[in-house]
Input
Amino acid sequence: MSIWRNLPLRAKIGVFLFGFFALVAIFGPIFEPFNPGFENQDPKFSLNPPSLHHLLGTTQLGEDVFSQVLTGTRLTFEVSLLVGLIATVLSVLIGVTAAYLGGVWDDLLSLLTNVFLVIPALPLLIVLLGYLSNQGETPTIIVLAGLGWPWGARVIRAQTLTIRNRDFIAASRETGEPTWRIIIFEIIPNEVSLIAANFVNTVLYALGASVALAFIGIANLTSFSLGVVLYWAQSGNALQSGDWWWWIPAGLVIALMGTSLVLLNSGIDEIGNPRLRASHETGRIGGHRIWTTDPTPVLSQLTATRSKVGQFAYSFSRSSLLDRAATKNHANGAAEAPTKTPTGGEIL
Amino acid sequence: MSPILEISDLSVVYRTQGGDVHAVEHVSLELNPGEVVGLCGESGSGKSTLAYGATRLLRTPALVTSGSVKYGGRRLTAGGDPVDLMAMTHHELLAVRWREIAIVFQSAMNALNPVLRVQDQLLDAIHAHLKMPRREAREKAAELFDLVGIPRNRLRSYPHELSGGMRQRVMIAMALATDPEVVIMDEPTTALDVVVQRDILAQIVELKERLGFAILFITHDLSLLLELADRIAVMYAGRLMETGASKDLIRDPAHPYTRGLLNSFPSIRGPRRELAGIPGTTPDLRDPAPGCPFVPRCTFAVPACSEVDMTLEPWGNAAQRGRTQLPLSAHLTACPIVTPEVSQEGVLS
Output
């Protein structure tokens, strides 16, 4: 629980946003008012602005945008998470194995990683998915995961190299622990935050890539992912004709999902790197922002230079209690020690 | 003679999630020109916090809650009133640091940049604080190496090519690069063996005689201070326990804590005796108990100890205790319980 309390606000926002989209992805389609692919032929249902009946309006073909966004959120979320999961597993497998086994295995696996790293991803995706696009989301997931792992693998390989040479690994090798056990119980727990950050980053990559591919039409265009919604909006000239309800909701969901992942990543950084957390916690003293390069703050000066509004806001903060205690403590000490004049005691 | 650095009633806290950690509480300490003052205490007693807090070098969780630090160097004040470091802005402090008050840091290993030649690091300091042509600065760097006894051809070495003792000498040379008036030495010899330690201490004393700067010497090694320092201040749990001329301190330690410290290492001369040490550990500074912080570990502890206000009072006979004007090297103790009459036997007997 204290981990949660110590998280910065942006990471908390990230967790909430991500949780919200996860809930929408899981339960959203249950509450769909219409089948997202149902085309109402009646021209009076074409391009309706948002109303009570169609919460986010209708498309050119009379489909319900709200239902499409709900389905799209689930599909896109699913694809991104699966790609992130598969790519992360691949990168951990290959990165850790290469670094731990070393020698010719390292050479081979590093070569493989480097080859995948320099494959121009977008053209390959376009070509491959151009062939496979009519078989649901599976080809997209496989191709994106197959091209998304090498970055993570390289980072994890480098980290494993440094961990592998530490004494506790040598010790467990001496005591005869099998290799798989060393890798799973000794090495990987040391890389959890790295792997988690890598996972979140890959999910972000998959989100962007899958939406982009669908947007240029390389996807199964009959299943409504968020990218496909945007594709149809684009081909229906929604932007030019001012049908904002057609494309803004899907775009907003994509943008917020991406934002939540970025914020989440910063939270993982803070958990994995306690020093980052310490500097974050102590950045404010006595209601003032203090940088690490500033000279040591002096309480009496901080109190003297506070504006009226600042003073009001500060009086609610926890540090104001600490400051008052410190100043009172000083006043007592000064009364007992007759040697020097108190300077901070008169402020409050 | 007015003190060159006068720390008065300084308190420093570290602000944490669980409240303030009182690392230094109401400490007053003076440093006279050309004097060596030793600051000693065990790990975590606040000696480094005192020195870095007084020069305002501590980072954000630290906060100075009271006190002033008056600096009276000739160059800066031009004979006028001493300036208060606690009232200075960042910019004003830049002029004081290194030029007026220099620091020899604890671990020479980490304080030197491993990828730069030591000469370049020296020149950096010189160029940052003195206006000097390049050629002159280079000559100055070479002179500094002469001063600390490193051959000039080592100027182009990288830190890893030097031994631990040499690295420490480089640190001292760097501190002296701008002719400071006060040098704070934070355990400069802790990581070195006794032979090299001896060498460097002799060098420090010699340089001090020649250049006339004052030294605030921080260490946990009281035996080392007894030889080096003119005066010694003993710290415990963020408070000063005892100050006095070092010869008074060794001959007639006043505070029970100082006695414990002196009992923790063997003396070279005299009969063999059991090393006593001090049982227990340092108290939690987050929530200090009232009175003397040493009570839980003190053999002289009485109930009245928890009402001691920890101000320094003269040690010695009762007649001396009433005097208002005290000599600079006065022997002061924070313990009013243990008086010469209470403890008859000397510690090192």
